[in-house]
Structures are given as C-alpha cells and as structure tokens.
Amino acid sequence: MPKHPAHPLDSTARPVLPGTDAELDAMLARALGKSGGETAEIDSPADVPSEVVDPAVQRCGYVAIVGKPNVGKSTLLNALVGQKVSITSRKAQTTRHRITGMRTLGATQFVFVDTPGFQTRHGNALNRALNKTVLGAVSDVDLILFVVEAGQFNLADAKVLSLLPANVPAILVANKFDLVHRRGELAPWLRSMQERHPFSEFVPMSAKASKDIERLFGICEKYLPQQPWMHSPDDLTDRSERFMASEMVREKLFRLTGDELPYTSTVIIDKFEEEGRLKRIAATIVVEREGHKGMVIGDKGEKLKRIGTEARQELEKLWDCKVFLELWVKVRSGWADDDARVRSFGYE
Ligand SMILES: Nc1nc2c(ncn2[C@@H]2O[C@H](COP(=O)(O)OP(=O)(O)OP(=O)(O)O)[C@@H](O)[C@H]2O)c(=O)[nH]1
Q1: Average pLDDT, stretch 84-111?
Q2: How far apart are the first and last CA of the chain?
Q3: What span, in angstroms and rounded, lies between the C-alpha atoms of 75 and 72?
Q4: Per-residue pLDDT tens for 288-319?
Q5: Where is this region: G5 (predicted)?
Q6: Are 72 and 207 in contact (CB under 8 A)?
Q7: Contacts (Cβ under 8 Å, ≥6 apart) of 108
Q8: Hey, CA dihedral for 190, 194, 197, 203, is it positive or negative?
C-alpha cells in the first residue's frame, strides 16, 4: 500500500514554524541530515507503480518554483520532471514563460510551474509581461518552492519574496548548497530568512544532485491535496513541441554567445512540419541591433551553425526522431519595449 501522509493544511497538522533558536538549530540539523533530528530520513513517494493507484487515494497539486534570475529554478524543474522541459543557461533571465512540467510518483502527481525571475531593473513591456506571469503563477498553487542561493539574500530575492501570498505554504530551497564552504554560517542566515517569511520548511540542496531531488519529492508530497490526478501519469509537460523547439534554440543561442548578446534576443518558429519520423523546423532568431546579428552568425556563419547543430541534436534526442532545423537571423529594433510586439512573440 502506498503511504498517504495527512495533508498538513487539512487539520491541526499545519507545520509548526520554528520560533526559538533551539527550534531553528534543530531544523538546520535535520535539513543537513545531522543526528539529533527526528526526521533526518525522508521517504520519497517513488517506487509504487502509478498504474495501480486507486483514484480515491491519489494526490495531485500545483507546485510553483519562484526566485530571482539564475538561482537554478529551471535546473530544479528539469531534475524534478526528469526530463528537459525548461531551458537553462548561465545567463540570467533565460526563462520567459510559465512552464508546467509534471511528474507522477506513487500515488502523487506533482504539477510544477516554473516562472521567470522577477524583473526589477527595467520597466519595459517585456519585463512587465514577465512580472505578470510570476504573479499569476504563485496565486493559485498548493505549494511554493522559494529558491535562493544558499546563504545569500539580496534586494532581487526580497522583491520576489514580497510577492508570496500569505495563505500558500512556502518551502525555502537553499540551492547550490555544493558551493557553500562555511556551513556553520548558515544558522544565522536561516534565522534571518525565517524572520522575513514564515517558511514551512527549509531544504538545503543542489538541484544537480539526484538524492536531493528525491528527498525534495518526499518533502513536497504532503502539501498536495488528496484528489484524482489531472494528467496521465506518463505526461511530462503540457507545452507544445513547437514551443520546445524555440526554447531549445534560445538555450543554445544564449549558451554559445556568452554575455555579449542582450537577453532581449528571442526565437520565433516560422515553420513546423512533420513527415513521418522527420520534423522540419524553420526558426528566426530576432535580435535588437545590427551589431548583435554578427554575434549570432559568427565568423563565416560558424556560430549560427553550431547553435543549429546543438539544438537539432537535443531535439532529436528529446523526440526520438530526425529533425531538420533551418535558422535565420533578423533585426527588429525595440521589440522588447513594444507591448504589441511582445504579445505577438508569444509573451502574454
Ligand atoms: N553549483 C551549482 N550550480 C547550479 C545548481 N543549480 C543550478 N546551477 C547553475 O546555475 C545556473 C543558472 O541555472 P538556471 O536553472 O538557468 O537558473 P534560473 O533560476 O532558471 O534562471 P532564469 O532562467 O534566469 O530565471 C546554471 O549555470 C546552472 O547550471 C546547483 O545546485 N549547484
């Protein structure tokens, strides 16, 4: 029989927020897996075949992943879903859409919502659209994973934190824990974080470590309501193949052009045709200035060719079919400042 922990918000089982120093220290010790905590080991809901789960005992709910740009939200989402549904790059502001990825483990179906980092620096139309997406994402979910870099918190984190609704449980995910060398300094940091928001739990982790991902599933499960699944247990995302194609090109574009290319460059799919086991895709990379065009094309077209090859290879792997990908580059000055154009490029 699969396990079904009581929903923490159903009854008196609401998580107790650590108030005293001793409680905070215990929370930290437990989260770090040190002795002395009563729940150092957390079961993962995995390993119960989902086909055999009676709908009457199924759990299903939305989990929003929020945080400022570059803290690792997309890496986390991909690891949770078990496949690439959101693009990642070292360049901040890579994610622009609300993306849902799903994962069904045992009796529980997790529906994840990825959000763009909350934009604070520029008030242009693109950033206004991005911020609206973040607000929409957090208002109607069962659980929020507020992602920060472990031990860090600045104004950009604070702006995202200020958007969290009071009535939705939020877990503090201290990501990139592998980069923290002075772990002893985390206790005062955790204390200050708990003063900023009544987090239900604290999870120090690395989105790149599979053990941490498994542990996170076990932690999140109890926050999702008991109700039948909304998607088939095999579904991983509700985004179209067309969308995945444009995201994949955009990821390669940002990875291969480095920091010179402004994040306002985007990708539009002009053609998406299927012929048996072959997909023919034509896409345009839209840049803001003539000078950016050269950065994308590179010496003798070398860079553009590499962007195309890498995107094609990943798409072939993702869909398990042959892909023919044709790329173009166009200049459209000021598109990110133009509301109508931002909408026409697919940002609501
Ligand atoms: N060392 C380390 N690096 C990580 C970890 N998680 C993510 N990263 C890296 O951090 C960078 C940003 O990760 P993303 O997943 O793109 O971040 P994001 O928050 O989705 O960024 P935006 O799309 O800009 O909002 C990438 O280079 C990741 O490889 C982690 O746990 N440890």
Answers
A1: 70
A2: 43
A3: 5
A4: 888 888 889 989 999 999 999 999 999 998 88
A5: 205-207
A6: yes
A7: 45, 58, 59, 60, 217, 221, 224
A8: positive
Helices (H) and strands (E) in the chain, counts: 10, 9
Query: What average pLDDT score do residues 185-209 get?
Result: 91
Residue closest via CA to ligand 1's atom 10 equals 72
pLDDT in tens, 233-262: 877 777 778 888 988 898 888 888 876 676
ipTM over 0.95: yes
CB 98 within 8 A of CB 139: no
CB of residue 133 inside a 6 A radius of ligand 1: no
**Closest residue by CA, ligand 1 atom 6:** 72
Beta strands in the chain (DSSP E): 59-66, 99-105, 108-114, 143-149, 170-175, 201-204, 266-275, 278-287, 322-331
Q: How far is the CA of 77 from the centre of ligand 1 (A)?
A: 10
Weakest-pLDDT range from 9-18, 81-90, 135-144, 166-175: 9-18
Q: Distances in Å between the alpha carbon of 181 and those of 34, 150, 184, 261, 331?
A: 17, 10, 9, 32, 45
| DSSP structure string for 246-303 | HHHHHHHHHHHHTTSS-TT-EEEEEEEEEETTEEEEEEEEEESSHHHHHHHH-GGGHH
Asked if 257 contacts 295 with a C-beta cutoff of 8 angstroms, the reply is yes
Cα 105 to Cα 179: distance, rounded to the nearest angstrom: 29
Yes or no: say if 130 and 103 are a contact pair by the CB < 8 Å rule.
Answer: no
Taking the centre of ligand 1 as the mean of its atom positions, its distance from the CA of residue 178, in whole angstroms, is 12
Domains of the chain in start order, with CATH, are 21-221 (3.40.50.300), 241-344 (3.30.300.20)
More confident residue, 309 or 340: 309
Place of tokens 């929003």: 64
What is the distance in A from the centroid of ligand 1 to the CA of 258? 15
Residue among 71, 91, 134 whose CB has most ligand 1 atoms within 8 A, to mutate: 71
Confidence (pTM): 0.66
Report the amino acid identity of residue 295: M
